[in-house]
């Protein structure tokens, strides 16, 4: 080499005096930064485990009557904040990964004795697709790159998607509960443990490996500085500039390079160059424009097709969800649904982000060489920008400052890719909606009523007395909220039931127009009565209250009810008596009900009546049609009466409508009643009224009896409820089963199902970003960079080969060759 002669000792002393030794490292590979990442990883594991413990022991971590009642901050906290944090965490790891890859050749150069060209100058880790790097690094035993790349892949492609599925809302006893799903939580914690191990590995190599860098070696100007004083080295690479990529590798195989304390590249052993490939280089130059595979047109077409497919699929799903009340659940498994709704969209977004990052890195690497190819440019636009020393998302500022607008656009899109990843985590959500399906179903029963005298319960005729008390028990349990009313029954009516399909789910109900039966009770207060004492059939003294009722033909019917005369021995003082009884006498009498409330003073079993309220009620059957919403179990909701008819209704009976009233009275009217001096009722009907309406004025002996206006509404409501229960409880005996000849009825089936929807705001943002993707892809591949060398400057060797023949590199040599 033709350079100014100095002894080795003098040269070493001069270097130590003029240029002090530094140990420069990127921020992301410095110990405080790596320790912060390790602390963040371990803290996240602890936080997740604490939240999981709370979720499992307390049934959730957030509670609200409805998911819509959660505040905006809380909603953002569980929907988006975890993904935002994971994306930021992933960005920091990609920064570490990027710096580890680009610095690996320089650390190899600084190792004792240097390293072979294939270990250093030919490496292009930053431009390799992220999935391939760990395998290539493991093959070369570059464990720092292996650890950082593995951690980056785990975060981007598994951790971020899985954490998006950790939180889920569940409905427990009508309350929305936010829980942590254990399967996803444990998976994320396991991944964080692997990341922590990778983190410690990177820390180890960052601390133990030393390289005396004085500044960032990634810029072209740094490469110029590292080679400008070595004519033999420049001559070697100057000869390689016109060789194709495969010859560049072949020519340098076996050579060894190192870097001294001044940051200068030194050739330790040179290979024997094969000059016979010059013609091949010229042919390659004419046929190959030097685009890497990622920038070839077929890669652009494939990438654009994927983006357009995403736009089309999202648009189709959004339209289907809007038009069809959501999308059906793909699985009953919550785990599988979280995979499909959260993990897969985030994973796809992360893959697209990885491609954009890779394209941005390619443009970062090629931008300065492209500027040099164009001719005279300022150093700010050519040799000074150190794009490869920045994460692609941060290159936007340097690119704008240098006027590299295509690069700044790609850096902006790489940043948008992170936004799309966050949006994708909550693009799909579940919501319970009502689905309406029109169908035709057959009535369960048909008219007319059966012959009651022969088919009534226990084969009792209409003139028999007694009560099974089933109806009273049903009504009492319902009043005490211990059970519901019988199916197809509400407190006023019994509705003709419809036969539902056997596979009806519990969350399905129906809207149907059907017939109903009930009662209209006409009551009036009366006092025109007499008391008659007599002896019963066995000679015991008895008393009955007699009164007259005008019949429809104008004749008078004499009717009566039994009236208790004596009080029990344990009753004294202020006392009360309640009674509801069917009038006795003719068949017409037995269609009427008398209800009375007495107050008196008991002494030695004799009672002096001080006050009373009596009313006489005549029930009439009522029928008509009603539109009812009813559950699959027959629970009536929101009935709407469409028509109402009351009267004799002979078309519904084979005998006479009064037979139904007479039969019902044996089961819903309790004739017992005794004097008492407490708040306990003396009959079933008044106990039901007290339980249903929480009103003791009917029972309290220390209060006056209820007035007619107070009693009539409550008594009529109770009578109607018992008659509806009677019809429902005995429907199989009172009605005829339907057959094939019975017409089908139109029914609207309402199934309350959990369906999948797309968030409108997230969908719009995602479509806008994907549209920007498509535009940028087309723009990039139309204006993709090209250069005049047969190999792209994507490694240290190819970059030095590009610069070796330049005057900017050789001028320092010419200066150093001049005599002092």
Automatic annotation (TrEMBL):
The keyword Transmembrane helix applies. The chain crosses the membrane at residues 33-53, 78-96, 145-166, 186-207, 297-319, 756-782. It holds the Pfam family DUF3433. The keyword Membrane applies. Keywords: Membrane, Transmembrane, Transmembrane helix. Residues 268-288 are annotated as: Disordered. This is Uncharacterized protein. It comes from Aureobasidium pullulans EXF-150.
């Amino acid at each position: 080499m033709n350079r100014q002669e100095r002894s080795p000792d003098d040269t070493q002393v001069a270097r130590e005096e003029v240029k002090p030794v530094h140990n420069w490292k990127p921020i992301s590979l410095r110990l405080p930064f790596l320790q912060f990442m390790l602390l963040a990883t371990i803290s996240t594991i602890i936080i997740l485990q604490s939240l999981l413990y709370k979720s499992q022991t307390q049934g959730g971590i957030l509670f609200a009557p409805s998911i819509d009642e959660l505040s905006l901050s809380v909603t953002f906290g569980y929907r988006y904040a975890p993904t935002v944090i994971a994306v930021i965490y992933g960005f920091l790891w990609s920064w570490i990964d990027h710096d580890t890859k680009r610095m690996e050749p320089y650390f190899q150069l600084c190792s004792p004795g240097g390293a072979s060209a294939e270990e250093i100058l030919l490496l292009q880790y930053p431009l390799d697709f992220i999935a391939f790097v760990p395998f290539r690094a493991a093959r070369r035993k570059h464990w720092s790159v292996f650890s950082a790349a593995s951690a980056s892949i785990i975060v981007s492609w598994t951790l971020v998607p899985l954490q998006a599925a950790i939180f889920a809302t569940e409905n427990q006893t009508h309350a929305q509960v936010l829980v942590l799903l254990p399967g996803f939580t444990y998976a994320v914690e396991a991944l964080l443990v692997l990341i922590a191990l990778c983190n410690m590995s990177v820390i180890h190599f960052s601390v133990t490996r030393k390289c005396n860098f004085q500044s960032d070696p990634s810029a072209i100007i740094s490469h110029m500085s590292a080679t400008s004083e070595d004519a033999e080295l420049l001559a070697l690479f100057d000869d390689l500039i016109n060789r194709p990529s495969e010859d560049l590798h072949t020519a340098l195989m076996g050579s060894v390079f190192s870097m001294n304390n001044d940051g200068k590249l030194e050739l330790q052993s040179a290979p024997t160059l094969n000059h016979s490939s010059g013609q091949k280089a010229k042919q390659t130059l004419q046929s190959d424009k030097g685009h890497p595979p990622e920038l070839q047109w077929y890669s652009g077409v494939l990438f654009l097709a994927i983006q357009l497919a995403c736009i089309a699929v999202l648009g189709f799903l959004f339209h289907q969800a809007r038009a069809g009340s959501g999308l059906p659940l793909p699985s009953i498994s919550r785990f599988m649904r979280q995979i499909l709704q959260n993990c897969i969209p985030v994973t796809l977004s992360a893959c697209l982000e990885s491609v954009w990052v890779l394209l941005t890195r390619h443009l970062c690497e090629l931008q300065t060489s492209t500027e040099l190819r164009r001719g005279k440019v300022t150093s700010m636009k050519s040799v000074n920008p150190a794009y490869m020393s920045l994460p692609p998302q941060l290159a936007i500022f340097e690119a704008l400052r240098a006027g590299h607008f295509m690069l700044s656009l790609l850096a902006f899109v790489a940043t948008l890719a992170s936004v799309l990843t966050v949006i994708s985590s909550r693009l799909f959500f579940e919501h319970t909606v009502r689905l309406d399906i029109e169908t035709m179903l057959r009535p369960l029963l048909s008219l007319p009523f059966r012959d009651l005298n022969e088919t009534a319960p226990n084969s009792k005729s209409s003139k028999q007395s007694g009560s099974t008390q089933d109806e009273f028990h049903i009504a009492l349990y319902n009043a005490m909220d211990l059970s519901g009313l019988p199916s197809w029954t509400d407190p006023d009516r019994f509705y003709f039931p419809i036969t539902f399909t056997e596979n009806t789910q519990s969350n399905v109900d129906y809207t149907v127009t059907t017939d109903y039966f009930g009662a209209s009770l006409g009551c009036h207060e009366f006092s025109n009565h007499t008391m008659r004492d007599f002896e019963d059939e066995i000679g015991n003294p008895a008393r009955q209250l007699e009164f007259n009722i005008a019949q429809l033909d104008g004749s008078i019917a004499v009717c009566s009810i039994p009236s208790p005369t004596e009080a029990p021995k344990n009753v004294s003082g202020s006392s009360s008596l309640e009674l509801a009884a069917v009038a006795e006498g003719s068949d017409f009498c037995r269609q009427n009900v008398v209800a009375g409330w007495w107050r008196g003073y008991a002494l030695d079993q004799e009672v002096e009546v001080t006050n009373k309220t009596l009313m006489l009620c005549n029930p009439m059957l009522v029928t008509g049609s009603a539109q009812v919403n009813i559950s699959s179990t027959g629970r009536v909701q929101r009935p709407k009466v469409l028509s109402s008819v009351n009267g004799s209704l002979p078309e519904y009976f084979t005998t006479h409508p009064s037979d139904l009233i007479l039969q019902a009275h044996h089961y819903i009217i309790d004739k017992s009643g005794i004097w008492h001096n407490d708040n306990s009722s003396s009959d079933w009907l008044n106990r039901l009224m007290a339980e249903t309406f929480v009103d003791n004025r009917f029972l309290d002996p220390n209060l006056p009896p209820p007035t007619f206006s107070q009693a009539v509404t409550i008594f009529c409501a109770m009578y109607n409820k018992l008659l509806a229960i009677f019809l429902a409880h005995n429907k199989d005996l009172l009605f005829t089963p339907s057959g094939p000849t019975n017409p089908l009825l139109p029914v609207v089936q309402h199934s309350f199902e959990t369906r999948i929807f797309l968030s409108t705001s997230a969908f719009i943002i995602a479509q806008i970003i994907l549209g920007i993707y498509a535009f940028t892809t087309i723009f990039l591949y139309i204006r993709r960079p090209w250069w005049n060398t047969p190999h792209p400057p994507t490694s240290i060797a190819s970059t030095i080969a590009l610069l070796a023949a330049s005057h900017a590199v050789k001028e320092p040599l010419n200066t150093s060759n001049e005599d002092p």
